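Task 17 of the worksheet. Students: predict the tertiary structure of the chain below and write it out as structure tokens. Keep your answer in the requested format; marks are given for formatting as well as content.
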Amino acid sequence: MKIDVTTDRKNPLMERRDIELFLAHEGFTPSKKELMTAIATKLKVKETQVVVNHVYQSTGRLDAKILAKVYDKPVREEEKKEAPKAEKIKGAAEEKPVEEAKKPESAVEEKKEASVVEEPKSKEE
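Model answer:
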């Protein structure tokens, strides 16, 4: 497995480096965990500072483009994983309380009274 750094941009606001790498490999595409270890040794940083975002595999070829981030501080496991989009949307919907349209009770009673039809009184009474 051979890794070459193609671009290395510093992002001081996010306290990280955005790195694009070219990977030449044999056999199966390496897992993200294997890539994190290889990138950390290549860049001489700790494995906890590296996050592999994307691995773009070329069809029929034994090479790939990798997008990774190397943080200045070690990153926790919870911060590395992004929630799937469906869960993000679901979580946002649960946080916002749904306000139900409440009708005044007097309006409901008026409708009930209007629906009841009075029968005409007979002349015999």
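Marker's comment: The helical segments are 32-43, 77-80, 85-95, 105-115. The longest helix spans residues 32-43.
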